[in-house]
Amino acid sequence: MALCAKKRPPEEERRARANDREYNEKFQYASNCIKTSKYNILTFLPVNLFEQFQEVANTYFLFLLILQLIPQISSLSWFTTIVPLVLVLTITAVKDATDDYFRHKSDNQVNNRQSQVLINGILQQEQWMNVCVGDIIKLENNQFVAADLLLLSSSEPHGLCYIETAELDGETNMKVRQAIPVTSELGDISKLAKFDGEVICEPPNNKLDKFSGTLYWKENKFPLSNQNMLLRGCVLRNTEWCFGLVIFAGPDTKLMQNSGRTKFKRTSIDRLMNTLVLWIFGFLVCMGVILAIGNAIWEHEVGMRFQVYLPWDEAVDSAFFSGFLSFWSYIIILNTVVPISLYVRYAVSLRWGLSRESGGPLGLFSSVKMKSSRGNLGSSPSCAVN
C-alpha cells in the first residue's frame, strides 16, 4: 500500500508511450493502486484521537480531567470524569475502526480485480493494482474500466464502443465513445504489440467532461478529446471487446480526483454541540471569575484575621493567589453545567444508532461510499459525462 500514498511533484503535462514501461517509469507516475482508508495499525490511535479531540466537548472533559489531577485545586475525584470520557472515546474509536476496516476490505477487492494486459506481445492476467501508465488493456463486455484509457480499437465498426457511466454521474443511459481512425484498425494483438505511439496531454484533473491531448505516431500527430476516452468506473456495454491505452492510473484517474480525501465527518448535531459547549464554558468561566474575585476580596478583608485558625496552604502566599486557585476549584466544582451524562448518551446513540439504522457499520459505509461516488460527482452540471 506504500505505492498508493507516494507523493509526487505536480505535473505540467502527461506523457505516456505505449508498450514502453521503462520509458514511462522515469516519470514516476502513480500506480493503479487506490486507497480510500484513513488509518493503518500504526496511525489509528494517534490520528483517531486527534480527530476526536477536535470535538469541543472531548477537549473540555480532558481539560477538566487534567485539573482534577492537581491536588491543590481539585475537590472531586478524577475517576468521575475519566470513565465517561474513555467510554465515549472508545465507542467512537471502535465505530471508526470498523468503518475503516470495510474501507480496507473494499480497497483490496478493487485492487485485486483482474484485467487483461498486453505484455511482451502476449495478453496476461494482471491485478488492477499492477497496471501501469502506457499499458494496453483489453476490456470485454460488462467489465469495469480499470483506469483512464485512450480507446484504441473495438469490435464495433469505426472503433465505436458503448459505456455506462452510472458510477461517475448516476446516469444509466449508454454513451458512445470512438477511437481515432488511425488506431481503430489495431484490433489484432500483433499490431497492438508493435504500437509505439506517444500521448502528450493535460495533467491529472477532476474534469469529467473535458480532455485534451495529442497522439504522436509515425511522425504524425492526431488530436484527442473526451470522446476518445474511457474513464475508470465506467462499464463496457453492448461491445464484445475493446483495447485501450492507460493514460491516468489509480489516484490520477478522474474518478479518484473527484472523490477527494476521506475526511473526519461532523453532523449538524456535532456542530451544534460544539457551539453549545463553547457558550456554556464561557458562562462557566464568568461564574468562576466572579467567585474567585469574591474569594480574593474575602481573604484580603476577612480571612487575614483568621490565619491562626484557618491558615493558608504552604503554596499560598497572598489573597490574590488564593483567588487564582479558587477560580480553578470553582471550574471543577461547577463542571456539571456541561452535563457529561447527557453527552455520553448523545455520543452513544448518535454513533451506534446511526450505524444500526444503516444496517450496521457495513451498511453505513456502503451508503456513504455510494453517496460519495454518485451523489457528489453528479451534483453539478459540470460533472456530467457527455
From TrEMBL:
The lineage of its organism: Eukaryota, Metazoa, Chordata, Craniata, Vertebrata. It comes from the Eukaryota. This is ATPase phospholipid transporting 8B2.
